[in-house]
Amino acid sequence: MTTMTGTAIGEHEIAAFQALHKRVGDAVETALRGKREVVDLVLVAMFAGGHVLLEDVPGTGKTTLARAVAGALGGLSRRVQFTPDLLPSDVTGTSVYDPKSGQVGFRPGPVFANVVLADEINRAAAKTQSALLEVMEERTVTVDGVAHAVPDPFLVVATQNPIDLDGTYRLPEAQLDRFMLRTSIGYPDLDHELDVLRPGSGAGRIGTVPTVTNPHQVAECARRLATLHVADRILRYITELGTATRSDDRLRLGASTRGLRALVRCVQVYAASHGRHFAVPSDVQRLCAPVLAHRLVLTREAQLAGVTTAEVLADATARVEVPRPTPQ
Amino acid sequence: MTWLRAGWAVVLLAVAAFPLSAGWSGSGPWSLFAGAVVVAFGVVVQARRFRLTTGMTLVGAGAAALIGGYFVARGAIAGGPVEVLRDSVPRLLTSARPAPPTPDLLMPGVLLVFLVALVVAVSVAGEGRSLIGPPVGAVVLYAAGALVTAGRADGRGLVAVGVVALAAFGWVVVDRAESTRRVSLGPPGAVLAVLAAAALLAGVLPNRNAFEPRELVRPPVTDIAVSNPLPQLASWAAMADTELLRMRGPELPVRLVVLADYTGAAWQASSLYGPIGAVAPPDLPAGRRAHQADVELVVGALDGNWLPTVGRPVSTSLGDVMVDPDSGSLMLPRGMGPGLSYDVRGVVDRPNDDDLATAKVPTGDAIRRYLDLPGLPATLADYARQAVLNTSTPYEQAVALEQVVRLDRHPDAEAPVGSSYARIEQFLYGPLGDAGAAKGTAEQFATAFAVLGRAVGLPTRVVVGFQPVPEGPDGYRVIRGVDATAWPEVYFADWGWVPFDPVSGTDSGPSAASKREVLNRLASTTAQPTVPAKDGPPLVLPPEQAKSDAAQAKPQARHWLLLFPALPLSVLLVLACLRGARHSRLRRAGALGAWASVLDLLLLARRQPARHLTAPDIAALAPDSEQALRLAALADRAAFAPDQAGPDDSWRLAGQVRAGIRRLVPWYRRLFWAVDPRPLRRRW
C-alpha cells in the first residue's frame, strides 16, 4: 500500500489493498472455517472504521471471529463479558490512587484495544451500554475532564443472543444506529462442521491465526479507501433506496442519513476488496441488508404480522430501478 | 462554425437549389439562389461576431428578408404586406412554366432559399455543430424544386444522387477533419441503403402523374365571348398572298383555335380561359410520345384575339396570355396587332405508325364532349357506319373516314360556308350540281370527318390554323392567307390527339405509307358508301370497343396494387434504418453500447430483465454467462469508474453473448428482429 496522498485512490493501490484484504481474510479463516462472507463483512466494517453487531446463538464462533480478526491484525484485543452488574468504569477505565507515587492516575479499561469483543452486550444495564457506545462513536474516553483516545484502528465486535432474552436490556434504536453493520454467523455447513469436529483440527484455535498486518497499515488503508470513487448515479440510487424505506407503511422508522453514509462507506471498501477503484450497483445491493436492516423499525402491526426488516429492504430494492451501465 | 463545415453546407444547399431554379427560365435564378445561401451564412457569421443570440439572428434576418420580399413584389400584387407575401406563391403557380424571371415571381424562391439557408447556418454554427441541418435544408430545397416543377427538373434523379453523395461526403470528411475520435460510417451507410432501396422501388412504383401543386391553386377564370374563326377561312383564302404571320422554328402546323363543341349547327370555341401556368390538367391526357417545340412568332396582318401557337402551349414570353387548358387555345384579351413578337413553347403529340395501328380510344365522361352529336340524322350515322365497314381498329376507322371524305370531293374557296348537319349532308351526298355538293372549304372537309368520326365512336375535334410552310432564306417561315386551313383530330388512348387531313391527305400526322396500307386492306369496302335511307337504326358502339375500354382500365388498377407491397416495404425500410442508426450510436458508445445491445436482444427474446437487476445479475442469467459477466464488468467500469478505460473487446464479447441469446429463440421468431421497433422505445 502506498502512502496517503490527497488524490483519489488509484488502481495500483486497490490491487495492494485487495491482496492485503485476502491475506487477512485467509488468516481469519484458519480459525473460523467456511464463513468467508461473514469474515469479509467484518473486515469491511474494520476498514470502513465502523463496528459490528453479531447476532447469533451461542457456540457459532462469534468470539472466535473477533479474536481471530484481532490476531490477524496484530494489534491489542480485549474481551468484555457484559453482565447486569457491569459498571461503565469497568469498560472504559477509571482514575485510581497510586500509593507509590501518591498521585491519582488513569487506569484504562478493556476498550483500549484495537479489537474489542463486547460479549452479550444486551445483558449489561443501559448505562454501561451507553458508555461503550459513546466510546464507539467518539473514540475517546473522558475521565475527570481528561480525554483518552482509544487506539486506531478501533473495532468493536458486539454480540447478542437473540434467543435467551430474559434479564436483558434491549439496545435502543439510536444506539443500534452506531453499529455500521449487523450480521450473523450461523452454523457451518456439513463439510466445515466435520472439519471443525475432526480431532487435531486447528479450527477455533486463535493461536494458529498468523499476524499478516499491523494496526498502522489498517488505519492507513481505511483513510485511503475513503477516497474511492462513487459515481453520482450510485449515490442517487442509495438515496432512492433510503427514500423507499422511509415511505414504506410497514416501517415506523426508515433508513437514516447516517445509515446511508455508512452504506456508502462500506460500498467503498467492498468495491476495493473486489479489486475495483469504483463502486457498482451490485455492491450496494450486497451490503444494503447488513448495513441498513438493523436501523429500521417496524410498526407494531408489521411485527405482529411477522414481517422482518430484511424483507422490507428486499421489497424496497426490488422497487427502485437500478442504474444500468448504458449510454446516458 | 468551421470554414470546412460552412463550405460543405453552402455547396450542399446550392446544389439542392438547382432543381428549384428550373422553375424559372434562364440560368440567372440559380445564381441568385446560390447568392442567397452565401448571404444567409454571412449574416450568421456576422451575428456570431456581434454575439447576437440565435433567436435574435433568426428573427432579425428573417424579418428583414420578409420585408425585402414585400417591397420587391408589392408593385405586382395588390394588398398589404401579408397579402403580398401570401399571394406570391399562388401567383408563381399560376404563371407560365418555367416562370419568367421577373423580380416579383422570383421573390418567393429567393425568400425560401434564404430562410432555409439561415436556419441551416444557425444550426451549423450552434453548439451541436449540426451535421443533420444541411442535409435537411437540402431536402427542403430539393422538395420545393420538385413541387414547383412537378418533378421535371430532376427527372433522372441525378441532382438527388449528388445531394446524397455530398451529404455522405460531409458526414465522413467534416467530422474526421474536426474530430480526433473514430467516426462511424453508419449514417452514410444507412443513407446509401435508403438510396439503393429507393432506386429499387422506383423501378416498380408508378413514376408518372407526379404530384402537381398547381392543381391546388384555383386560377382566376375569365369568360370571354369569342367568335368562331371558321367563317374566316374563306376571307383568308381571298387574301392568299398576304402575310398573316411569320414563324421561326421547326416545320409544324400553326394552331389558332381548337373547336371541340359541336351543336349540330356550328362549332363553338371554349369561352373559359385562365392563366397559362394554371394547369388544371387537360380533360384528356397528353400522349406518351410527345416532343417539345420552341418557336418564335411575329404577327403580320393577322388580327383578332386568338394567339397562334404550336402544339399544346406550356409557356410563352407574353405575360397576359390566357389559355383554355383542354384545347390549348391561346387568347390575348387585348388583341393582336402587326409586329407583335413572342416565343411559345408547345408540346406536340407524335405517335408512330405502330402505336396507332393498335391504339384504342377511351370511354367515359371525359370524352363525352368529343362524341356529342345532338340530333344526328340517321342518314349520317348510317353513312358513317358503312364507311368503316370491315375496319377492326379505331385507326383504321379514322383512315377509312379520311379517305371517304376526300374521295370525289374538291376544295373550293367559293363553296357555301357552314358546319351544320344539312351542310355536311349536302357536302357528302347532295345531288351533283347543287351548290355545295361534293365541294367545300377546309371547314366542310374537317367537319364532315369529325362528325362521321363521332358517329362511329371516335373522339374528334376541329382545329383552325395554318398548314406547315417551308423555311425562307431569313430563317422565317412566312405564313400567308392561302395557308389557312382547318383539320380534324382524333384522340387515341395513350397517344393523344392525332391530326388527319381529309382535304389533301398529305400533311403531318400518320405517315402516308401506313394510311395506304390500311386503305389497301380495306379497298373493297371503303370505296363509296351508299346513300342511306332516312331514319336508319340508332348508333351503338361496336362491341370490340367496349372490350378495349375494360382492358385499358386494368393497368391503372395494377399501379394502385403496387402500393400495397410498397407501403409496408417503406415502413420496414424506415424501421430498419432507425434500428441501424441506433446500432451505430451504440457502437460509438463502446462497452456501454455493447451492453445496451445485449439488453436490446434480451428484450426481443422476451427475456427482459427486471428493473432492479444489476448488470452482473443479468449476465448470470445469460446463456454464455462467463462472457456476459466479463462484458457486464466492462460496462460497469465504463459507466461508474472515474476514468475512461482504453479500447476493449466489449463488442466481441457482446457478439458472443448475443449469439448465445439468439440460439435460445427459434429462427422464425427472429425473422423480423432487424426491424422490430421495440428497442427504439427503450431509452438506450
UniProtKB/TrEMBL annotation, chain B:
Native species: Actinokineospora xionganensis
Keywords for the protein's UniProt record, in alphabetical order: Membrane, Transmembrane, Transmembrane helix
Protein name listed in UniProt: Transglutaminase domain-containing protein
Gene3D superfamilies assigned: 3.10.620.30
A family per Pfam: Transglut_core
Ranges that cross the membrane: 27-45, 52-73, 105-124, 131-151, 157-174, 186-205, 560-578
Domain Transglutaminase-like as annotated: residue spans: 434-504
Domain of life: Bacteria
